[in-house]
Task: structure prediction
Amino acid sequence: MSMSPELLTGAVSLVEGVSATPSVRRPNRLRAFMPLAWPATALAALLVFNAIFTPGFFHVQVIDGRLYGSLIDILNRGSPTLLLSLGMTLVIATGGIDLPSAP
Result:
């Protein structure tokens, strides 16, 4: 015995506050970025602190076709670590070899 949709809709609509159509949960786009909120806020706070208390922190010069400045030094010194950590993350995420933490 099957009931027609009209009967079901009428029965449900008699109950106050209940709709006949099921609620559809839409993904909240803001929740997708929530894991990055605190690290981005901390990075922004560090950059503002350095801009206020370190004169010339964001100053970049071009001398003889090369870039010089505090930001360039930070990027040059941090890029090998960034590449290694990205590679390790990809290997572990894809289920590749196990990376030992000690020799």
Notes: The beta strands are 61-63, 66-68. The longest helix spans residues 70-93.
